[in-house]
Write a structure and sequence with these properties.
The chain has about 425 residues and is mostly helical. About 80% of the residues lie in helices and about 0% in strands. It has 15 helices and no strands. The longest helix is centred in the C-terminal third of the chain and has 39 residues.
């Protein structure tokens, strides 16, 4: 039997390595899309949609439209800049303006902590709808399982698969409820453009819940793992980001229509009690007891994936302070600690879970314009950091207009947002 030469073995190994890198790259790209998508339509957004649809009715459609338009300008700019530079957000910001990355990192970590408390609260609400257990116990179970899932070997690939399954499951379930609830589509379409009621606190909250805080950077940071970085990959990056935005935009509007149909039929959703789960009530009203249980399972699954995603993305910003957190066990340990702290804070505070989920969206909406301002500065004045002399002018103009808009909305919304937790006016 002839023996293979070292050269042939080397070629074979190289081919296997190339194929493995391609599989990892594809997984990371798909994971980036679904990480952004499931983060944008996680438990916070679902609860915010039910809450604001109850209070604003069809006028909430305008807030969704604005959130999608802002999403486009934010995500296309952030994804392109981060992947072109090959650096995480904090490091890229520091390269442009010294210590600005540290400021963004601190804000994202604080916002991510607030968001993760809300995600754990969402897990509690999901298990309450599914099994009827106390939301606090449900939150404890959710946090504990999130830690276990994250510590599984190849957690990144497991998370990618979970995110894909959850995303598809939520879309199917929501479409069914939207069909059964028979919402006033004509009125919703009219108020998407010409709302009867305009509420900036609502818009800021829904923007924060879908693109604020860690969500701004989650997909882009995950995309870095694909290895497809540099300005030469700008085309595929933009397409991936656009696909994620398209999926989330459709999902947001269909979810709104599903709940609007229930509210328009005369059902009043409970928004105040400790065990209030307005979205679960809407699904239960449309599909009965079985629908409430199924919704609970989907809601909990979305929550636990968001717990992992929020913790991982927030912890990834620690690399801004020290390179040891760029990957490996240091990052894994930091992520676990982040989940543990979020869980402890959730168990100690007495605010209703639904109120937490609404507030964290508003809070992340308040910190969104700070990071955007730094990124717009990079786009206009530090293109050398992006490895290319040219950058799409339309993208810069859109991003700048959105930055100005988010600053304005944040300033006029501070009081009402903190009022969600009984703080301030």
């Amino acid at each position: 039997m002839s023996e293979q030469t070292p050269a042939s073995l080397s070629a074979e190994d190289e081919a296997r390595l190339t194929a493995a890198k391609k599989r990892v790259g594809r997984s990371a790209v798909i994971g980036a899309i679904f990480l952004m998508a499931t983060s944008a339509i996680g438990p916070g957004f679902i609860t915010q949609t039910a809450t604001f649809t109850q209070t604003l009715g069809a006028s909430f459609a305008f807030a969704i439209l604005v959130s999608v338009l802002i999403d486009i300008a934010v995500q296309l700019n952030v994804w392109r800049m981060i992947t072109s530079s090959g650096k995480r957000a904090g490091e890229l910001a520091n390269s442009a303006i010294p210590f600005s990355g540290h400021v963004i990192a601190v804000l994202v970590i604080i916002g991510g902590l607030a968001f993760n408390i809300g995600n754990i609260a969402g897990g509690g609400l999901g298990l309450n709808a599914l099994l009827g257990i106390d939301p606090k116990l449900g939150g404890l179970i959710t946090g504990a399982l999130a830690i276990v899932l994250f510590l599984i070997k190849k957690a990144g690939r497991v998370m990618d698969i979970v995110l894909i399954v959850l995303g598809l499951g939520m879309i199917v379930m929501t479409v069914i409820v939207a069909f059964i609830s028979q919402p006033p589509v004509g009125d919703a379409l009219r108020q998407t453009i010409l709302p009867d009621t305009l509420d900036f606190a609502t818009i800021t909250t829904i923007v924060g819940g879908t693109v604020g805080g860690y969500i701004t950077y989650s997909g882009a940071h995950r995309y870095l793992d694909s290895g497809q970085t540099g300005p030469e990959h700008a085309g595929p990056v933009m397409r991936a980001a656009a696909n994620g935005i398209f999926v989330t935009g459709i999902m947001r509007y269909v979810l709104f229509l599903a709940i609007l149909g229930v509210v328009a039929s005369g059902v009043t959703l409970d928004l105040t009690t400790d065990a209030a789960n307005p979205a679960g009530q809407a699904f239960g009203a449309a599909l009965g007891e079985a629908g409430l249980r199924i919704f609970g399972a989907i809601f909990w699954a979305a929550a636990i994936s968001s717990v992992i995603g929020a913790a991982y993305t927030s912890a990834s910003f620690l690399s801004t302070f020290h390179k040891r957190f760029f990957g490996g066990w240091s990052l894994q340990l930091a992520t676990v600690v982040f989940i543990v702290v979020s869980l402890i804070v959730y168990l100690l505070i007495g605010t209703a879970p639904a109120a937490i989920l609404v507030f964290v969206g508003g809070f992340n909406g308040l910190i969104l314009p700070i990071g955007l301002t730094v990124f717009m500065y990079i786009g206009w004045f530090r293109r050398d950091l992006l490895g290319a002399k040219k950058y799409p002018l339309w993208l810069l103009i859109a991003g700048t207009l959105v930055t100005i808009l988010t600053w304005y909305m944040g300033i006029v919304s501070v009081g009402p947002i903190f009022a969600f937790l009984g703080i301030g006016a």
